[in-house]
């Protein structure tokens, strides 16, 4: 049973990339064996809006964010000021978690964090320093660049093979036959 389950791990990883995209985490950890949930930032105190940023106006100092799903989805306007932390995470089209406080009946963003895709169980985040150590070692692993082919052609990590997320189904044969081999996927940033 365990051997059968191990065979499907690469396919589960690839399916998670196809469904949720890539994940990028700038926090460092000391071990690649830590579960992905341990790398998540602390939950903000107080009320939050979670969703996709629809727009941001620096002139009006407002962020519009789509919250909820389906028929219950709505767009909420949140003001921000010079004290708001993490404004770089309020990029149009990106997922965000906006902690806010009410000021005169208006929600004001206090902290904005990226809303990253959740990794499936058994998949861990490996900090760049550890990947660098692996590249410079003699350990046997496969490094997969899941960015578009043009980005791979422009530059990539030493020893990486190009298997773009959008072409993963067609390039499955590039994965190792040994299902116990360590696979490391990297991409261009948060999703």
- Please give the count of helices: 3
Distance between the termini: 33 Å
Portion of residues in helices? 10-25%
Structural class: alpha/beta
Q: Judging by the overall fold, what is the CATH architecture of the largest domain?
A: 3-Layer(aba) Sandwich
Instruction: Please state the overall shape, judged from the principal axes of the Cα atoms.
Output: elongated
Q: What's the main sheet like?
A: 5 strands, antiparallel
Which range does the strand content fall in?
25-35%
The CATH topology of the largest domain? Oxidized Rhodanese, domain 1
Give a count of the beta strands, DSSP E runs of length 2 or more. 8
Would you kindly provide a brief summary of this structure?
This protein is 17% helix and 27% strand.
